[in-house]
Write a structure and sequence with these properties.
The protein has helices spanning 13-23, 42-45, 66-77, 89-111, 122-144, 157-169, 186-195, 199-208, and strands at residues 2-7, 26-31, 55-58, 61-64. It is α+β, with helices and mostly antiparallel strands. Strand 3 and strand 4 form a beta hairpin. The structure holds glutathione.
């Protein structure tokens, strides 16, 4: 089975790429050219009417929403998320939805305050979103505790999703990154360092020009093709 990942470097498609690598699935990539606003082109909108990256084309049709893609892939390949019979499934679902419908949208509001409210309110929104994110990360740090991974003894979509969000927090907020230090969240810091050593992440970093220490000490992407913003 082969998939097509519509991606832009260092966009949410990165999370899907890491899981695809972890699964060992066959996939090809189609660049969405952010410099040309390719995510808003007619052809892309026919795949995702929201005009957001990523999309994964599958034999069951095109899927959008990062969390949905991750869950579908993990279920289909029985890798990267507890299966329906697992006693870990309930907790894993809870945290996946927390990441996708709370943490990720909060980060989007920090990145693009002008998409949500008048520009003159941007600084209020940004400082509020920073506080929300710090609170979310404190909860996640406590939940992880001294475990290696969120789900038992194997890396899952939760680790991949969260670490990518953490990467972006350290790079892309237009109002700066002084508000955030991964040192404040020692369990998440440890997770970032463990995950970034995996082959799936190293290969994704190579494909998208993400450098070393992708999560724990990130640098801006220098991709071989396309651009992150
Ligand atoms: N809820 C969406 C959010 C995806 C998202 O925010 N994608 C960003 C890239 S990381 C994007 O497409 N930004 C371009 C835009 O907002 O026009 C998901 O989980 O897939």
């Amino acid at each position: 089975m082969s998939y097509t990942l519509y991606f832009a470097p260092d966009n949410a498609s990165l999370i899907v790429r890491i899981l695809l690598n972890e699964i060992g699935a066959e996939y090809s990539c189609v660049l969405v050219d952010r410099k040309q606003n390719g995510q808003k082109s007619q052809s892309y909108l026919s795949l995702n009417p929201n005009g957001l990256i990523p999309v994964l084309e599958t034999p069951d049709g095109a899927i959008f929403e990062t969390g949905a893609i991750l869950l579908w892939l993990a279920d289909r390949h029985k890798t990267g998320f507890p299966d329906v019979a697992s006693p870990l499934r309930a907790s894993a679902l809870k945290w996946l939805f927390f990441l996708s419908n709370t943490v990720h949208p909060t980060l989007r509001m920090l990145f693009y305050p002008d998409k949500y409210a008048p520009l003159e309110t941007a600084s209020v929104i940004q400082s509020s979103m920073q506080n929300h994110l710090l609170a979310h990360l404190a909860i996640l740090n406590q939940e992880l505790s001294d475990r290696d991974w969120f789900c038992a003894d194997a890396p899952s979509a939760l680790d991949m999703y969260l670490c990518t969000l953490i990467r972006w927090m350290q790079l892309y907020p237009i109002a700066g990154t002084d508000w955030f230090s991964l040192d404040q969240f020692p369990n998440l810091h440890r997770l970032a360092k463990t995950l970034e050593r995996r082959r799936s992440v190293l290969d994704a970093a190579q494909s998208e020009g993400l450098g070393a220490c992708v999560f724990s000490n990130p640098t801006y992407a220098t991709p071989p093709i396309g651009s992150a913003t």
